[in-house]
Give the backbone structure.
Amino acid sequence: MISQATDPGQAYYKRLKEVLEQLYQRYNRYELIAPDPLQFVYRYEKPADMEIAGLLAAMLAYGRVQQIEKSLTRLIGVMTPTPAEFIRRFDKRKRRRFEGFKHRFNTGQDIADLCEILKEVLDRHGSIENFFADGYDAADENILPALSRFRDTLLAMHQKRHSGAVRRSFAYLLPGPALGSACKRLNLYLRWMVRDDDVDAGVWKSIDKTRLIVPIDVHMGRLCRILGLYNAKTVSLSAALQITRGFAKMQPDDPAKYDFALSRIGIVQACNGRLSDKCDQCEIIEYCRYR
């Protein structure tokens, strides 16, 4: 086992990259996407529909997996057969289709308000990608400035429609980095849209994947601590940036490459940080066994 008592060096990252590549080959496969919310993006073939379904799927990607699937099945069902056309034709009559909907902190009113704003986005920009790209600068160190502009502009559009106020539950749909949030759901959405492999859809072509931030939640944070990529106990924006820099040392052109595969340890192997009969088959056991 490589000692992690000191700062990781070249040998550490070389070995960790080998381990993560094994994990990537094992888990980064289309047939293993479900139950990930990304599965709802692949219900469609047109980029216009995929980016709409993806945004909704990412915004509701919190809570229990079963509840996420249930909520998204209902929402995507409402928008069938084409989410993009549903948004373009959104009106008061369509708002009623979300009555009674609830996903933990969010209600049908939140979803309807988001659809109303997205209609304006599509009317003005033609796609969510074009709208996001308006705030993107390839010279930025990472995607955070563009993400902030994207989120802040959507909230400003909501404020304009609601006498300057932002409903708390609506704001929860769109976490921002200004207060230190890791912004897991928005970074997850960007990974789906920008990266292109057997898992990620890659429907956006105007954003550089080298600028992506690894989506970090409690479970991913725990796995990254096991790997020695950071040592804080809280999941924050600074933690996400530190973790992303660690991955970039192994994959400078694609720092979010291993996100999906690494997260499968918790989903497929049901890893909870405790010893189990599956541990001996786990790729990262050499890091975890003594922690």
